[in-house]
Amino acid sequence: MKTLYLIVFFFLVINFSYSQKEAKLFTHADTLRGSITPERSWWNVLKYDITIEPNYTQKTLKGFNKITFKVIQENHSSFMQIDLQKPMQIDSILLNEKSKLEFFREGNVFHVSTKNQVLNQENTVKIYFQGKPKIAVNPPWNGGWSFIKDKLGRPWMTVTCQGLGASVWYPNKDHQSDEPDNGASLTMIVPNNLVGVANGRLKSKTLNNNGTTSYTWEVKNPINNYDIIPYIGKYVNFNESYPGLKGKLDLNYWVIDYNLEKAKNYLPKEARNTLNSFEYWFGPYPFYEDGYKLVETKHLGMEHQSAIAYGNQFKKGYYGSDLSGTGFGLKWDYIVVHESGHEWFGNSITSKDIADMYIHESFTDYSETLFVEYMFGKEAGNQYNFGLRRNIKNDKPII
């Protein structure tokens, strides 16, 4: 019996030690990424103005981000934390377009010397950056930058960075608690034969004298860092007006040119049904000022605010399958409904801590049930909801 007790005791000790060892995998880099550090807390992001020029052949990026910020603490750190993940590099930083700032790197964080900042003052830091960004392996789940081709062999570029963090491709304050209060702009400098699409509305299109075109898009509303996304390819556009609860809402569809007719016959009905349902349940679409867009991608989809990534191949269900097993999941496009639901839950209402992003998914998953109920009745919604529950494995913590 004593031998049995000893075996059990050593088994527990070994497992406790293993658990402790596992816990120690939490790193200082994790703390810098996930915490409101003293170098983050004293300033509030007001706007991002991002310019990028991707090189498809070399799989590189270069550009700058002009961050407008406000000083919100009087006695604060003399450093500003700017996040940019390896192997991307910062070349230089200017304060208010004039003074060159000193900085040093610590892993995926840059500590920028910003002394003598005055309470309530608004300033800018213009951060020039370049490098080879992380390449997406299985977007959007294992994300990064995608330098890929459409089915005709032409360049197609975009980013997926939810969870991974927007600092995988541009410098910012990479924490969900601080969205830019006054929105953001994104300028893409691309070859003349390609088109750049991004969040919000097209502010300008400029033909340069070197074979490139600059497309500048802008959102007026606060936006998650990981929602700011460039789409670059052989895009064409069609649009319509939706009579929503707050008046006319502009609906735009950006697809690869060879899918134009297919998209015209398919996407508008799916989008209108979705907006009818969600405005009924949740109130007005949150971003009337920025419009609503579906943008075709090769990956399945993502909830990029006012520019939803759509890659469901113009099929009903989830790539043509019914996740609920009830038949109701094949009567509508899963990606249009689910990712549009995130405009309310994830984009309009955002968790401060990345650990709580299950909130975004849980409410948005429930929005699917409400959509089915709106379209096909309460019993259909109940059946769909019950069918989805069979997929719950309960094999990992949600936080």
Give the gist of this structure.
The chain is of the alpha+beta class and 399 residues long. The chain is built from 7 helices and 20 strands.
Contiguous runs where pLDDT drops below 50 for at least 5 residues: 1-22
Q: Give the distance, in angstroms, between the N- and C-terminal Cα atoms.
A: 41 Å
Pattern of helices and strands: HHHEEEEEEEEEEEEEEEEEHEEEHHH
Tally of helical runs: 7
| Strand proportion | 25-35%
Largest sheet: 8 strands, mixed
Taken from the alpha-carbon principal axes, the silhouette is globular
Instruction: Provide the spatial order of strands within the biggest beta sheet.
Output: 5-4-8-2-1-11-14-13
Query: What is the subunit arrangement here?
Result: single chain
Number of E-state strands: 20
What structural class results from the helix and strand content? alpha+beta
Mean pLDDT: 93
Structure in words:
By secondary structure, this protein is an alpha+beta fold. 25% of the residues lie in helices and 32% in strands. The protein contains seven helices and 20 strands. The longest helix is centred in the last third of the chain and has 23 residues, at 260-282. The radius of gyration is 23 Å and the shape is globular. The relative contact order is 0.10.
Task: Please give the structural blueprint.
Blueprint (H helix, E strand, L loop, with lengths): L1 H22 L4 H7 L3 H4 L1 E13 L4 E12 L7 E5 L5 E7 L3 E2 L2 E4 L2 E5 L8 E10 L12 E6 L5 E6 L23 E8 L3 E3 L3 E7 L4 E8 L11 E3 L1 E10 L2 E10 L3 H23 L9 E5 L4 E2 L5 E3 L23 H11 L13 H19 L1 H12 L10
Parallel strand pairs: 1-11, 17-18, 18-20
Antiparallel strand pairs: 1-2, 2-8, 3-7, 4-5, 4-8, 6-7, 9-10, 10-15, 11-14, 12-15, 13-14, 16-17, 19-20
Helix pairs in contact: 4-5, 4-6, 5-6, 6-7
